[in-house]
Amino acid sequence: MSTAPTIQPRKTFSEEHYRSCNPPHKHEASQELSNKMGTKRRRQRSCTRRRKPHKKSSSSKGDGNNSDEEEIPEEIFYRMIRRILVAVGVPMGLGLALLYVFGVVREQNLWEVPMWLPFSTTFITFGASLFGIVYGALSTSLDPNNKGSVLGLEEAQKHWDEMWEEEKTRE
């Protein structure tokens, strides 16, 4: 007759052993810190951890830091993103819609769509979508007070000329 194996109870570890093996979580650490320090001391410590504003270094061109670049203000950045999304989304959506229409026309036997037509329309609309990234960035007004025109043709022309002039001066 065989005996059934006995199940041993699990070992329990003390709280000290658990803390020595596992680092405290963020909320536990902050709770311990608040117990050790007064609120005034915590405020002083948190004030010293604040990020200091970025200072531009006046470095030469040879050490890799490009001091000519400036940060784009948030308002202009979001305006640029909106323009890029529209300039990319409209041609891409048109291309996908045309693919769907060509498929439905072919399934319903309304017209035998030649293979080159969906291929060329997809190529053109997706290419225009790729061009939309560049156009969306170049057509954005960099003046925070001036939103620019709806299409941004004047801004795009101005930025295009500035970009090529800058390229010529580098050479």
TrEMBL record:
Basic residues composition-biased segments: 38-58
Top-level taxon in the UniProt lineage: Eukaryota
Residue segments, region Disordered: 1-69
Keywords: Membrane, Transmembrane, Transmembrane helix
Membrane spanning stretches: 84-103, 115-138
Keyword Chloroplast in record: no
RNA-binding recorded as keyword: no
Biased segments, Polar residues type: 1-11
Extent of Basic and acidic residues compositional bias: 12-30
InterPro entries noted in UniProt: PAM68-like
Pfam name, any one: DUF3464
Family annotation (PANTHER family): EXPRESSED PROTEIN (PTHR34575:SF6), PROTEIN PAM68, CHLOROPLASTIC (PTHR34575)
Protein name in UniProt: Uncharacterized protein
